Each structure stands twice: as structure tokens, then as C-alpha cells.
Amino acid sequence: MSDWTPDIDLLQAFDDEEWLRVERNYCGRLLAYVARRVPDSGAREDIVQETFLGAVRGIPGFDRIYTFEQYLFGICRNRTIDYLRRRRTIGQGEPADSSDSLPGMDELARSEETPSQIVHTSDLAAQGTELLRDVLVSWVQETWQQGEFKRLMVIEALFSGGWRNRDTWRRFELRDETSVAGIKFRALKRLRELALRRDPSGELLPALSESTAEGSSQLDFNVASIWRTGRVSCPARYWIARKLSGNLPDGPTQFVDFHLDEMGCEWCQANLDDLANREGDGYEPFLERMRASTVQLLRSRTT
User: What residue ranges do the domains of the chain occupy?
Assistant: First the structure.
């Protein structure tokens, strides 16, 4: 079993067949993702339908450094959060479009940065985030291919889970905290090497320096965020399928179990739920209802 990925050029051309194929391939896992947060089946279907319509509207600006699945799940996550926020605020007697969390004009006026400085800083942050994500992905793939699954779990626990050394060495039955520090040191050394290959200027190196030491907050938060939103260590869908069928080797099985159960990856849990609960064409009635609205939107984009 392999992961199907759509043709982005066809999607950006608003090709009916490619978009309907997207709906068929991703409907189940999106519904499974929303089901963990939204108990009402009607609301779940509304969220997933809005996800696909949002994907159609946003596809002209799709950034190809991300996978389509990241793009689609990101939209679904935002739609789910919007739904939960509306339900919560309405239940409290507040307007559903409350903007109390937004900064006021007086706060914005107090900013000492000029617009050009803000844009420049934002551009640098985006470039750094992209580079760091690519470096982390390369390290994970390299470590997986080497069969070093315990090392991969240790680094995911530290970087993504925010675990402390003293908790990590006990969980993985290492000798002591020094063993954890050694694994982290070697991982950071390799990440620096990978970063220099992509960025000879070395601008990313400070982000991989001793500021990642246990107890620091800013970088650990950034790395954790990039690790999760970039789906740095998420196993491909066919690995999860092999786990369900019982023909996945011990090493990958240990990592997939850790990633699902202890790291609680919401995207991979949705894939697991979808693969485990598939029953023929169980989503067909919902797909049929979605098809009309999707095709109507596609037509409006091509006329």
C-alpha cells in the first residue's frame, strides 16, 4: 500500500476529477481527525466539507515546500478550532465573532518596530523555520534508514514532547541522564552539519547551539512547534497500515506505537482510526453530498 498524492498542477487548474479524487482519498482521515474533538456527526461533516471548499479556494497560493496532506490537515484543524470556539463563546453568552483576543489599536501603536522591520523580521523567521524543518526531516529520515529507532524516539521525546533528561533515560532504559545528553549532543552535531549544507552562511547555527540545552524555553518551543506542525517524524500512511496488519518489523513498530500513544500525534491517530474503521463505501453518502458543492465552486473558478 502506498500513499497517493494529488497532482498540484491539476488541482490549481481546478480539475474536477482530481479534486473529487482528493475528497475520496482524504475524507475518512479528516472525519476521523474531527471525530476526536467534535461529538456531533452533522457538525463533523460540515467541518470536513468546509475544509475541502477552503482547500479549493486556497490552492492557487499553495506553497510546495509542504505536502498536500499538511495543507489539508492544517485547514481542517483551523476549521475545527473555529467551530469549537464558536460553540464555546455562544454557550457563554458572548458573540461568536468576539475579537477580545486581538490586540487593540493602542497596543499596535506602541510598537517600536517600523512596518519594514516587521516584514523583514517575518521573512527571516519564515526562512529559518523552513530551513529548520527541512533539516529536522532529513535527520529523521536518515535515522529511520539507519534503523536507530530508540535514538529517534529519544530525540522526539526531547524536541517535540519537551521531556526532561531524567524522565527520558528511565523510559528508554538508558544507563543514566548522561546517556540522554550524549544522544542529544550527537543529534545536534549532525543537525548542524545538515544545516551548513543548506545554509553555508551558518545563520541557522545559533538555533542549533547550546541554547537547546535543557531548561531553555524559546528555542525548545520553536523546535517543538516546527516538529509537530511540519509533521517531521510522522510515519507514512502505509507504515501505519502495516502496523495494523501485523507485518511491521519490531523497530518501526516500537516507534509508531510511541509516536501514536505517547506523543499523541493527532494526524497519525486520524490515519490510524480511518484505516482501522474502513467499511467499504461507508463514506459514499457524504461524498455524494459534498460533490455537488465542490463541483459548483470549481465551475465558478474556471468561468
Answer: 1-98+280-303, 114-232
For residue 103 the three cell numbers come to: 490586540
Answer whether residue 202 shows pLDDT above 70. no
- pTM of this prediction? 0.74
In tens, the pLDDT along 130-184 reads 788 888 999 999 999 999 999 999 999 999 999 999 999 999 999 999 999 999 9
Average pLDDT of 37-42?
92
